[in-house]
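Comment thread on ticket #2218

A.B. wrote:
> Attaching the input chain for the structure job we discussed in standup.
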Amino acid sequence: MWIIKVGGSLQDSAYLQPWLDAIVMHGAGRLVVVPGGGRFADAVREAQRRFGFDDSEAHRRAVLAMEEYAAVLHERAPRLIPAHTAGEIRAVLKDGGVPLWLPYSMVSGNAALPAGWEVTSDSLALWLAQELGLAGLILVKSLAVDGERPLEDLAASGVIDGHFPQLFTKQPVRLAWYAAEDAARLPELLD
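C.D. wrote:
> Ran it. Output below, let me know if you need it in another format.
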């Protein structure tokens, strides 16, 4: 089983629906969807600049932004089943569904995760894969990513967040990188 993090950068893209269709068609009992933050997280960044709240509050709001993007994903793919907890995720997988993670209840106040911009949906997806003991993490990005590059380089260039390499080192999982236009390749990974 895999976590698949669907980047918020796909929100307004023509590539989002093919990904959702592929996930629903091939992911039953095998995939857990983690939403990015997209425009909702960008709105939190702008609000922080405007109103000056601290990074901890920004992190809390950004996690809620992920839930807003999850609502968009659910609207476009109603067969995704919202799940808040590890138990709910496991139950959906066991029943042959595709859980759509709503992260707030598991992440809010979790001392194991820094509460700041160094932890975005990428690290949260990795953390969830580690927590659930899943085979790996699929990261769907708007652009192709050279998966052979060191994670520290990817973090330095903004492809992933700054906490991701450290979290990965603690408990590595298999990583698969997909560009926005690669939805048709999902079945070959899962098979």
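A.B. wrote:
> Thanks. Noting for the ticket: The mean pLDDT is 95.
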